[in-house]
């Protein structure tokens, strides 16, 4: 028996999953770490904490396998900035995807450099989450650190580097840096010039299933992995999550219901939203994708549960799935601003349409509906770009909530499929590891064997009609609050 491991580097924890040669998930180890916010709107982590978590998880998993670990791969939180000096020392804490200190840099890129130039050079406009604005911030505010930069990395690529000593990344993760020309699969010389960095500071470009190296002797002693273990570079968390749900071709769609929410549609050919509302990235299977990210998905529900001083299961159980939909009670889930499609860091959350008859259960349902509307808002613009589906797959913690799954089916008017694991990123990383190891010839064949739908939710026409009208009110409410 030979084994593979998928490593999912998340914002709150690293999860490593062991699979057998048939791709069956056998065991997982989860190790948490801290985020730091030394100033308002800052979000940082120590790359050394990621490495410590990885080493601990791998050490535990290798003891559970009764045969060699032949390959491993990664799913990683995107956009984070990791900086190393010439001695491979971390220069400062990593600046994360949910850090919003860079509003001035984003404004400069979008309005001085210009959105038209950014779209031509990269396929995307600047957002607070992306990597290039973070580089500009370091250049402006930490010049001494900026001058010492030898290597610029994304979070998962730092872990791959520690395992192999190879400075590499993949096209799906690089697509979210605003340094990468998504259409032409190369770094944008103009963007590197704007950021005052050199291409040799950046990682080599790979496909997500490429083997970039083997485990070094030193890391073999620390983790228990054999030196023959292949390290497959993997991809950004959403692209790898799409692999883990077999969302690979035009007509497929998946929704990720995690802390943030994602709507993800593969494309066979490059296309972009000229308004910059939707991201145009490279997929982990060598093709392209359209994607939109909402910032407060399960985060909105967790916020509401904390306000109530209860637990999630109890709060959801109190909501009657068959209770009438209130057409006037709205929730805008913009608790930390919003990314797609409105790109407004100053957007705020709202309960609207309250009256004395409303109950806790009504407001809970409104929160679930509000997040569903935020995701549908992204999808509605994707449809304008020619995206068309008959069904979607769901992953993330929210996919374990039957009421939410049904609301999404009704709002989107699509069948919602749930696969055998809510952790699509781990399954996707394992699929990439198996392709890199030669167990499957390509990602498509790997996922056809590994991914299984276990439950489906079908839209209810009478609910969809109400939600269409309610969504129009949802979108108009934001516009009114912004004076648009």
Class of secondary structure makeup: alpha/beta
| Name of the top-level CATH class of the domain at 3-239 | Alpha Beta
- Quaternary state of this entry equals single chain
Strand content: 15-25%
The CA-CA distance between the termini, in Å, is: 61 Å
Task: Examine the coordinates and then state which fold CATH places here, giving the name of the CATH topology of the domain at 3-239.
Answer: Nucleotidyltransferase, domain 5
The CATH homologous superfamily of the domain at 3-239 is named ATPase, nucleotide binding domain
Quote the average pLDDT.
95
User: Segments where pLDDT lies below 50 for 5+ residues?
Assistant: none
Q: Supply Rg.
A: 22 Å
Number of helices: 16
Helix content: 25-40%
What is the overall shape? globular
CATH architecture of the domain at 3-239: 2-Layer Sandwich
Largest sheet: 7 strands, mixed
Total strand segments:
24
Overview of this protein structure:
The protein is globular and about 65 Å long. The N and C termini lie far apart (about 60 Å). Strand 18 (about 280) and strand 19 (about 290-295) form a beta hairpin. Helix 12 (about 360-385) crosses helix 13 (about 400-410). The mean pLDDT is about 95. Helices cover about 40% and strands about 20% of the residues. The protein is α/β, with parallel strands linked by helices and about 475 residues long.
Summarize this structure as a short list of keywords or feature phrases.
single chain, 484 residues, Nucleotidyltransferase, domain 5, seven-stranded mixed sheet, 16 helices, 24 strands
């Amino acid at each position: 028996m030979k084994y593979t491991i998928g490593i999912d580097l998340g914002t709150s924890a690293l999860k490593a999953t062991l699979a057998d040669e048939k791709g069956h998930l056998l065991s997982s180890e989860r190790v948490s770490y801290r985020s730091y916010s030394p100033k308002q709107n800052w979000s940082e982590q120590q790359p050394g904490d990621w490495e410590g978590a990885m080493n601990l998880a791998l050490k535990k998993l290798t003891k559970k396998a009764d045969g060699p670990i032949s390959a491993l791969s990664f799913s990683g939180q995107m956009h984070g900035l990791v900086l190393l000096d010439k001695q491979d020392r971390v220069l400062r804490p990593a600046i994360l995807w949910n850090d919003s200190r860079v509003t001035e840099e984003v404004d400069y890129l979008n309005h001085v450099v210009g959105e038209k130039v950014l779209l031509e050079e990269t396929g995307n406009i600047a957002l607070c989450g992306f990597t290039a604005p973070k580089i500009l911030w370091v250049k402006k505010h930490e010049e001494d650190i900026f001058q010492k930069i030898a290597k610029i990395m994304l979070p998962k690529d730092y872990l791959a580097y520690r395992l192999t000593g190879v400075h590499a990344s993949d096209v799906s993760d690089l697509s979210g840096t605003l340094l990468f020309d998504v259409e032409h699969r190369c770094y944008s010389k103009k963007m590197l010039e704007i950021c005052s960095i050199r291409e040799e500071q950046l990682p080599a470009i790979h496909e997500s299933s490429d083997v970039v190296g083997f485990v070094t002797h030193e890391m073999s002693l620390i983790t228990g992995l054999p030196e023959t273990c292949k390290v497959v570079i993997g991809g950004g968390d959403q692209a790898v999550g799409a692999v883990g749900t077999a969302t690979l071709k035009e007509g497929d769609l998946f929704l990720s219901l995690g802390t943030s929410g994602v709507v993800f549609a593969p494309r066979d050919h490059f296309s972009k939203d000229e308004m910059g509302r939707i991201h145009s990235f490279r997929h982990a299977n060598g093709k392209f994708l359209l994607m939109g990210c909402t910032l407060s998905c399960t985060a909105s529900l967790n916020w509401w549960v904390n306000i109530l001083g209860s637990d999630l299961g109890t709060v959801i159980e109190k909501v009657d799935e068959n209770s009438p939909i209130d057409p006037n009670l709205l929730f805008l889930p913009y608790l930390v601003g919003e990314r797609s499609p409105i790109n407004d860091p100053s957007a705020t959350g709202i309960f609207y349409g309250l009256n004395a008859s409303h109950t806790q259960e009504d407001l809970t349902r409104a929160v679930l509906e509000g997040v569903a509307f935020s995701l549908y808002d992204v999808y509605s613009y994707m449809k304008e770009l020619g995206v068309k589906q008959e069904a979607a797959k769901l992953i993330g913690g929210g996919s374990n909530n039957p009421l939410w799954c049904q609301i999404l089916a009704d709002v989107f008017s699509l069948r919602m499929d749930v696969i055998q694991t809510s952790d699509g990123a781990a399954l996707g990383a394992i699929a990439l590891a198996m392709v890199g190891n030669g167990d499957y010839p390509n990602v498509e064949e790997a996922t056809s064997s590994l991914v299984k739908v276990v439950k489906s939710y079908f839209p209810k026409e009478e609910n969809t009609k109400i939600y269409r009208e309610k969504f129009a009110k949802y979108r108009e409410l934001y516009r009114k609050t912004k004076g648009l």
